[in-house]
Amino acid sequence: MRKFTAFACGTGAGLAAYYYHKLRDPQLTVHNSWTNSSHPVNDFALWDSNWDCRDPKSLVKPQKNDMPHEQNRFNTELEKSLPKHARHIILIRHGEYLDIGDSDETHHLTDRGRLQAKYTGKRLHEMGIKWDTVIASNMVRAQETADIILNEIDFERSKVKNCAFLREGAPIPPQPPVGHWKPEASQFYRDGARIEAAFRRYFYRAHPDQEKDTHTLIVGHGNVIRYFVCRALQFPAEAWLRININHASITWLTISPSGNVSIRYLGDSGFLPAKQLTNRIPRQAKNVV
Predict the structure, then answer these.
(1) Backbone phi and psi for residue 107, each to the nearest 5 degrees, phi listed first
(2) Nearest 5°: CA angle at 32, between 31 and 38?
(3) CA 152, CA 120: separation in Å to the nearest integer?
(4) Residue 107 in contact with residue 101, Cβ under 8 Å?
(5) CA-CA distances (angstroms) from residue 238 to 172, 192, 227, 231?
(6) Nearest of 105, 132, 96 to residue 207 by alpha carbon
(7) SS3 sequence, the chain?
(8) How many CB atoms neighbour CB 197 within 10 A?
(9) Cα Rg for the chain, rounded, in angstroms?
(10) Per-residue pLDDT of the chain (289 residues; tens, 9 = 90+)
(11) Which residues bind substrate (predicted)?
């Protein structure tokens, strides 16, 4: 029995030493069996700290040498470039609408869509947020949703910004592909560049002179919001169609002073009564209020 115990202990120690050294060898990294990745985690999926091209170190002229005065110059300029507050971006999907006709002008909210927008406005009011900026897509359903929300929150209508970059579209071919939705390649080419431009326009860390946390409200569309979430969190952008968000739902992203991005709400619609929850376009108009 003693010989067996000694053999077992010796074997266990030997195996432990073998796997310890094997795991430390970057060429022999053992991968988690529940992932599909064939690359070590340190080869991909690392956070890009300069994703918005505003990392303070990238904005300051590098040190010329190690002299004290040059180090002081660099540190002083770096300190001036450091953001001190966060940016909160709250994304609202428009309410339910009826897809009638070939033009955007006929795509008005349904009765339920208008009620959804009202519930969302009340929810935003209850949050007690002091809005710095309100932006809406210039498509009819987003404009109508924003108009109803503005009846509930404290923000001057004259200060609302309308943005054509936020219009609904096809951001990027999704993975995995879906059979029921196959836009032409030209649509991805056209819409993708515009939606990416919208992301770069609104998603970035605070300026160094920002004196407090800011809150930006954006009323837009499902595809655009889902793409924004993937881009902001540095998930594969092709995964956007794997996410579902309800009409008039709230998605809240926070960009910290360091440039890190976190998500507080993703498609939150728990404030809506169950019978008002929708995420697809109805086939015909129904008064469901």
Answers:
(1) -95, 75
(2) 45
(3) 9
(4) yes
(5) 6, 11, 8, 10
(6) 132
(7) CHHHHHHHHHHHHHHHHHHHHHHHCHHHCCCCCCCCCCCCHHHCCCCCCCCCCCCHHHHCCCCCCCCHHHHHHHHHHHHHHCCCCCEEEEEEECCCECCCCCCHHHCCECHHHHHHHHHHHHHHHHHCCCCCEEEEECCHHHHHHHHHHHCCCCCCHHHCEEEHHHCCCCCCCCCCCCCCCCCCHHHHHHHHHHHHHHHHHHCCCCCCCCCCCEEEEEEECHHHHHHHHHHHCCCCHHHHHHCCCCCCCEEEEEECCCCCEEEEEEEECCCCCHHHCCCCCCCCCCCCC
(8) 11
(9) 25
(10) 544 444 444 544 454 444 444 444 444 444 445 445 555 455 557 999 999 999 998 888 888 888 888 888 888 888 888 999 999 999 999 999 988 777 787 899 999 999 999 999 999 999 999 999 999 999 999 999 999 999 999 999 999 999 999 999 999 999 998 888 788 888 999 999 999 999 999 999 999 999 999 999 999 999 999 999 999 999 999 999 999 999 999 999 999 999 999 999 999 999 999 999 999 877 554 444 4
(11) 141
In whole angstroms, what is the distance from residue 183 CA to residue 173 CA? Answer: 9
114: its two tokens? 């208008």
Find how far residue 240's CA is from the centre of its chain. 10
Cα–Cα distance between 20 and 28 in angstroms, integer?
11
Is 141 labelled a binding residue? yes
- Residue tagged 């109803």 (tokens): 148
Nearest to 199 by CA among 156, 244, 159, 230: 230
